[in-house]
Amino acid sequence: MPYLYPFDPWASTLCTCPPKWSLNPYTGCGHRCLYCYATSFIPKFYEPRPKKDFLKRIERELMGLPKGAIISLSNSSDPYQPLEEKFSFTRIFLERLVSKSFKLLIITKSDLLLRDLDILSKLDVVISLTITSIKRASLMEPGAPSFERRLFALKELKKRGFKCVVRLDPVIPGINDEEIMEVLGEVLPYGDHFVLSTYKAKPDSLKRLCSAFPEKSQTLKKLYLDEGSLLRGSKYLSYERRRKLLYPLIERISAQCKTYALCRENLPEINQRKGLCDGSYLLQNHF
Ligand code: SF4
Q1: Which residues form a coiled coil (predicted)?
Q2: Which of 59, 60, 73, 131 has its CA 20 to 30 A from that of 6?
């Protein structure tokens, strides 16, 4: 399997992302988010390791990529997880992109990316920061930087003119749903585009959430296992609950004339244009 591969190998009809290439410099992730879906298909996910021969292979694979291709870094790990401080694979990869025609999407929870602003400023890049909670970030995402550090990174990026996407993803009933409007209030001035989604349960992630929040365990099981429905291998909240969680956020974002998208939410009445989802429309000359 190549390290640079077409995004969404499952060809999900729920996904409205444009064609792009996915790259994970590391296998697994040290941010250890309880809700992470990648743990369900990548063994030893919370024991992250650098990809073997990454730099050598990536040089070769970049040569085979079409001109103007969008590279998404990363969809099944975090390019700025703690390992990056030691190995710098992400930074070295970014250096390889300077003066090339590729476009870049970065998705991270870490302010470590501020280290690379010198290179990022030379690239056509849109940066997505995932920010889910003020009070419970250290419980939900025990290895990731705090809310304050992520907010600081977002403000710095905005100040320096980067295009920024904020992912309020996932909203989990009983865990962060009551504070998600407050989170939105903090980040709204700095994001150009917002991606929203509700938590989709996999057996292992639901188990982790239930043991970290035992007082919410019955509610989560009822909402997902009893009332929810199975869609493409994940348990979704009921349609009504997903609407109820997401619509107030949509209204507030729309009131500020900012764009938003839902990620694999299956709410077809929301007219979601292809390519709006991941914020790639913010790339220079993309549409
Ligand atoms: S940062 Fe992303 S890939 Fe890493 S554990 Fe959290 S959800 Fe999973």
Answers
A1: none
A2: 131
Q: Is 266 left (phi over 0), alpha (psi -120 to 50) or beta?
A: left
One-character DSSP codes across 220-284:
HHIIIIIS-EEETTEEEPPHHHHHHHHHHHHHHHHHTT-EEEESS---TTS---TTTTTSGGGST
Q: Whose CA is nearest to atom 8 of ligand 1?
A: 36
> Among candidates 144, 165, 177, 194, which has minimal Cα distance to 36?
144
Whole-number pLDDT of residue 287? 46
Do residues 283 and 68 touch, judged by C-beta distance below 8 A? no
Q: Residue 277 sits in which domain range?
A: 5-282
Does the beta carbon of 32 lie inside 6 Å of ligand 1?
Answer: yes
Residues of the chain with pLDDT under 50: 287
Q: Does some domain include residue 72?
A: yes
* pLDDT tens readout for residues 152-177: 999 999 999 999 999 999 999 999 99
Q: Is residue 160 within 8 Å of residue 116, measured between CB atoms?
A: no
- Phi, psi values for residue 5, rounded to 5°: -135, 155
Long-range contacts of 222-227 (CB under 8 A, 24+ apart): 223/173, 223/174, 225/201
Query: Number of folded domains in the chain?
Result: 1
Looking at the domain assignment, is residue 287 inside a domain? no
